[in-house]
Description:
Layout: E1 2-7, E2 11-17, E3 22-24, E4 27-29, E5 40-46, H1 48-58, E6 63-69, H2 75-84, E7 92-94, E8 102-107, E9 113-118, E10 137-142, H3 149-161, E11 165-168, H4 172-175, H5 178-182, E12 190-194, H6 195-202, H7 211-216, E13 222-226, E14 232-236, E15 240-243, H8 256-269, H9 274-288, H10 301-305
Parallel strand pairs: 1-6, 1-10, 2-8, 6-7, 10-11, 11-12, 12-13
Antiparallel strand pairs: 2-5, 3-4, 8-9, 13-14, 14-15
Amino acid sequence: MYDVISIGSATVDIFIKSTSLSVANDLLSIKYASKNEVEQSLICSGGGATNSAVAFSRLNLKSTCISLIGQSHLNNYIFEDLHKDHVSVDFICQNEKDITDFSVILVAPDGGRSILTNRGKSGLLTKHFKWPKIKDTKWFYITSLEGNLDLLEKIIGFAHENDIKISLNPGNRELTQRKRLLSLLNLVDFLLLNQEEAEILTDTQSDSPVFWDHVHQLNSSLIAITNGRQGAHLLSHQQQFYSPAVTTTPVDETGAGDSFGSAFVAALIYDLNPQDALFWGIKNSASVVSYLGSKPGLLTLNQIKK
């Protein structure tokens, strides 16, 4: 039996950090036709499913992930990272006719980044799930399904049939199908959004006086709205909490959302109250952005309890 099963993408991330990258007017740039030094680099696994599965494992929870990868020598980075953190790979499927998703992440000196992503043509489908083998888990942690809302409906229905709680962090392709996605949110136990995603779902700007009313109307049991270095808000049907971000020097902001959401759900699995779960999420996120890559800074259970 698993404590939590993460569902979504498994990618390979190639990080490049250089002081030659400059930021101005919301543009990350480098001089054309120039040759520049790289101060830090890293090749590792990424994607919402592998990031969260490793986070859960570091917090002493039995985890696995359901993902689809393609044919690539880069796959070794995915399997090595999961094996290192004792995450089962039994539910990773492979399409040998496609490529494995990979991203090149350009990291600016202030820790902000821009991402270039190369996606395969295929995504997770119902046939990739070993349904009888995943019904004995406490939580599904669902990240981007590349817009496949038919699959999301199937997962949510299966979860309710088997008394499995649902965490959802929708991707951009799910958000483009706003009306259909909204109809599913009352079945979600924990909904994780960043501020921009919340604005899309509510069709309201965050500085509007009715923004928070519209967030409440999303109707999930718990809703977290993260806003980077500005901290995070947590809403339930009865209460609303806010936590500022932990002061840290950001090295790379990749994986901040995954680390927040997984720590939050882990706290709920350990029967902590939502306000303490919010602090776990903030603390784990602050640690992750202090390192290059989405996994090196993930906290252990002893570290997050301090």
